[in-house]
Every structure is written in C-alpha cells, then in structure tokens.
C-alpha cells in the first residue's frame, strides 16, 4: 500500500508541476490532488478498522474449522461455516439439479460441483445477456441506436465468442476458489445481515465496493502502463478498438489471466472487509452482466456511472476511462474523458 500510495502522490505532483498556467488554474488540480492524497489512506484505514471492529472468530475462521472427508462430496466444517457450505450446495442444486441425475452428482466432490455450476452459469449468463442485448440494440432498436451504421459484422462477434469460451473454464476458477476459501473460514465473509445490523451492512458493503472499484482501476491501468503486461495479456482485448468491432460479446474476450486479474479485487478485499456472502456472490454475477453492457457503444448519459460511452473511449484512445462501475477514480487521477468531449473533438 505504501508503494502504491507513493506512486499516486508522485504522479499527482508530476501533473501539477507540468502545468504552465497561472496560480488560479491550480485550484482544480489541487482539489483533485487533495482528494487523492486524503481519500485513499482513509479508505484503507476504514477497511482495516472494520476488519478489527467485526473481529468475530466465527467470521474469521481458521484452518482448524475444516476437516476433509474424501468419502463425501461435502467438506465437514464447524456449525457456523456449515451455513456457507449449505448455501453453495443450494446454488449447485439450483443449476446442476436439472442437468445431472442425483445419483451421479452425489459422486462429484463439492468443490468440483461448484466449479461445474459456475462454468454452466457463466456460459448461460454470457449467451443470454449478450444474445438478448444484441437482439435489442442491433435488430429491434437498430433504427434508434445505429441508424447511421456501425453495427459490428459477424466476424468480430464470432471471434469474441471464441476467445471468451476458451477463457471461460479458467475465469470460473476465481469464484470457485473464492467459495472454497469462504467455506473454510479464511475470509471475512459473514452469512446474515443480522450479524452486523443494517447500518453496518450498508457501511461495509459501500466500503467493499469502493475498494473493489479502486482495485479494478489500478489493476486495469497497470495492464496498460506495464508494457509487457499489455503486450502479453491485455492486447488480446484491445484488438476491438473501433465502434464497429465492439459488441456485448466482447465483455469476456480476454486472455484468461487478464480476466482473472481484473476481477481479483472482488476476492482480495473479502480478506480485509467483512462482507455479506450473498452480496459478494451477487457482485460477481453483476460483474458478468456489466461487462456485456459497457461494450455496446451506446452512451446512456448515466453520470457518474462508467457506462458504455466512457468505455468506448477507452477502447479507442487506450489512455482514458480505466474505471469499471463509476468515473470517480478516473476523475481523481486525471484519466477521465467525457463522451461529450469526444463528440466536440470530432465535430471540430
């Protein structure tokens, strides 16, 4: 954290020192600099404080909470952690129940069932959300959103689907690993909102999501700024760099390691911030839907949400709008470019 904080501060000072305008022009950059220098340490302080304040040994757990029984598909855990296992087992039943007969599924270890459930659900979500969204914007509402052309051809869409399907078995390993660690009590996840109260739930969820947004921003920016990472990982996603090559199916068209790195803040911060288990699961589900939405090239004018209009600029300039759900990190670190600015630049 100290290294990252020093990086932030050095970058901000460099931006300020490179400005040659009068002192009154420093007010806006200084305001952003103050926000950066004060906000991030406070955010991490709150995260650390919350982890201590909610230091329930049942939530924290330890290795001793789990004993492996390799003759059973379910791990044997202490009573509190058993709640996590029961919840994930219910998810497995919901998705795999109609597909695999019970007598066969009972022979599959619990973690393997979890991976299979995530893989099945991942494919369903990818094709259902991407397919419905493409039908809506490219056919049903084509005259509204693409009256002047710009609809991607079949070739880039099929390539995006192919790249996404190659990566899917690896992508779903991240939520599978997350659930494995939660079931064993290695994280700060808790089962019921009643354990922390509604005010505590709201505060902790806001803190968790703010840290996730911060983490995704810097992970994404690092994949651009560190040239070997861009060349070997992130460039796969950026071959779609024009509006007529982007589609909702591009949302998962990554090098698998790239996709895992960008989603990893969702998992990293459950070790620091007490997080409601279902809310954590829901955030991963929203992530899979959101990636389709921000690649449709339609500017919804939903400030301060980082909608597709902002993300399209990222794909065409490579150096703006690294954020994921909101624009606040880009605003704070000087990488924000509003779609209205791009329209003015094109018209001029």
UniProtKB/TrEMBL annotation:
The chain crosses the membrane at residues 119-139, 198-219. Belongs to the sterol desaturase family. It comes from Adiantum capillus-veneris (Maidenhair fern). This is Fatty acid hydroxylase domain-containing protein. Coiled coil: none annotated. GO terms for cellular component: membrane. Its main location: membrane. It holds the Pfam family FA_hydroxylase.
